[in-house]
Amino acid sequence: MSTRQVSEQPGLPLAQMLDLLPDGVVYYQTIRDESGEVVDFQLVYFNQQIANMAEGRYEVSPGLLLLGDNTAHEASIRPLFEEYKAVLTQRTLREYDYFDPNLKGYFSLRINKLNDGVLVCSRLIDKTASLRIQQQATLLQNVLNGSINGIMAYRSLRDEAGHIVDFELQSANKAAEEMLGQQAGEIVGKTLRELYPEEIEMGLFDWYCQAVERGEPQRTQARYHEPVGIRWLDLSANPLDDGIVVTFIDITSSREAQVQIDNQASLFRTMSQSVPDLGVLVCDRDYRILFANGDLPAIFLTEIKDLVGHMLEEILPAEMAAYIRQNFSDALAGRSRYMNEEIADQYYEVFVGPVNDSEGQTVMAVATLRNITAVKHAQQQLESSVNELKRSNQNLEQFAYVASHDLQEPLRKIQSFGDVLRDQYEEVLGDQGTDLIRRMQSAASRMSVLIRDLLMYSRIASYREAFGKIDLNQVLSEVTDDLEAIIADKKAIIKAETLPIIQGSALQLRQLFQNLLSNSLKFNRANVPPVIEITTQNRSATELPFWSESDKKASAYVEITVSDNGIGFDPAYSERIFHVFQRLHGRSEYNGTGIGLAIVQKVIENHQGDIRATAAPGEGATFTILLPCR
Amino acid sequence: MLILIADDDADDRMFLEQALRQSGYTNDIRTVEDGEDLLDYLRQHGKYEGQETPWPTLLILDLNMPRKNGFQALSEIKDDQRLRRLPVVVMTTSAADEDVIKTYNLGVNSFITKPFNFNRLVEIISALKVYWLETVKLPK
């Protein structure tokens, strides 16, 4: 109204008058888009006071757009725009105090609709008060930014019915910026639904609403699924005016550490319970039981599940308590020890030692007890078996001596008496008598060979001499030397590849080759000179033949085959030929005691090897030997 | 000339005497039955005290004997200044290497394993006779 009066008085210097006012006066023209929506305001007029205030802070000149030319101050200008727009559309006057962050001052604002625009009058409020408020604001800002907690303030956005539909972020401190990886400038003014839609789903939105509606602070821990993994935040929401201040801290690492501690504790509990024959007892520095689990000896006065929390003296007979206390005392002093204990008729392997915290301080003592009663009993049984075996071996050695000497003696005499009889009483005996004596001598001779072979078998079966490096080529050459006569007699041919050097017993390996070669030489086909072929091949433990029962202790083996062109044998007997006294032929056809191959097998057993015989009647026999080599 | 046989086995003593005779040996043969008996003879102790015990040209010694075995007897003979020059041939059922080594270490002159038949024994005794009684020179 006054404007109209002034304009009706021509000649008055209106612009000068306005410039002399202590208040700032600005007139903005409304800018609309095609649909008539208000999108900006254009500066049409400003007085001198405005020019003074804005100098160096805001650019002011007619034609400037409020939003369009103040993008640098968007955060503080946007609320003003909204206010102007509200005044324009609601046609109401608005008066309020406004802090301009750019001018760092408080202003009393009065906004009027004028034509299709707004007239804004502003007056600086008391400068010192403004300054104090400003200092306080700076202080508060510093405090907020100095906090290690993230702090964000939201204003409630309500629908017409007054229900909260969203929250608008009003400010966020430095810690929040760092934790969220977003600048306050980017997010202030946006809503919760825009910024953190996941919080709706997580139930945090409802929880914020509750804090606002009830007017009570709330606190919770929330789990966020982020691309880099899970993040835990400890959140508290404090209602403030019609909004909330959310304070939060990242507790992911401590939460993870806690989970790890919980896992380890349950692992330890499970292990102490599930390891067979294991018991665990833990006490603190006051000898109070912290943990008791598993297979503990039956010495406690209460049940094992009730031990925790009790002092040693409360749960054990005095003597036992004193003994265990002494051991724990040593452990708490930093000493650990292993011992074997017999407790309540059971044998235990006991370890007692200190438990140190991360600083290296002994905070607990732990005792683990392994019940070894069964092992101990087995060990005792084994010891008595070994002693029995030793006795029986001694008997066997004695038998071997008796067999080698005393049993051979009478046979030698039968032979010699026979010789003397045939020499000196030939005429008296006649041809028939001489023949009977020859048969008697032949029987005695067979028995002598039998005793010799049996003795060799028992020696090889029971005797374990130290193994050495044995060159099998040398062994073979010694054996062929010994068999020279029969080789020459049968016109036999022996073809051998170069054999390896292995760990073994020279005596036994010699016996092995002697018996195998003798066997081949003995069982030749009528009128066919024996041909014996000896071949060798290296085998790793993984490529042993299917029939091998060797427990594959060695990593490398040597396979040696001895094959001949003799009479062979029925494959049905390929196992039985290794049994003692097993003979496939009548004595009139082939001599022998039936012990030779049994000795061969014993030698192979003693060398942790394996042997197999394959043959077909009339097509020769092949003996395949596996011996470990190192 | 005298051959002394030390053997506890009466059969073996008989075989040795028989073999010696068949080999053509005609001189004296004396027998003792164990190591004690042997040393008593050589030292004229015990039952040989005051008896005539001619010094043997050769001793044929068994190893496995009661009271004092062949090893002990051999050891004492070779330790005794007066007896050590006596040639000793061990004739035993043993063929064990350790017995061979042990007796040679004690100073035996020969080691023979008793053969398994009498005819072979005669051959061995004949060889002994040719070597010890007809070839080598022995101390008086």
Automatic annotation (TrEMBL), chain B:
Response regulatory domain boundaries: 2-129
Biological process per Gene Ontology, one example term: phosphorelay signal transduction system
The entry's keywords: Phosphoprotein
PROSITE patterns linked: RESPONSE_REGULATORY
Cross-referenced SMART domains: REC (SM00448)
One Pfam assignment: Response_reg
Residue list for modification 4-aspartylphosphate: 62
Full protein name: Two-component system response regulator
The organism's place on the tree of life at top rank: Bacteria
Keyword hit for Ribonucleoprotein: no
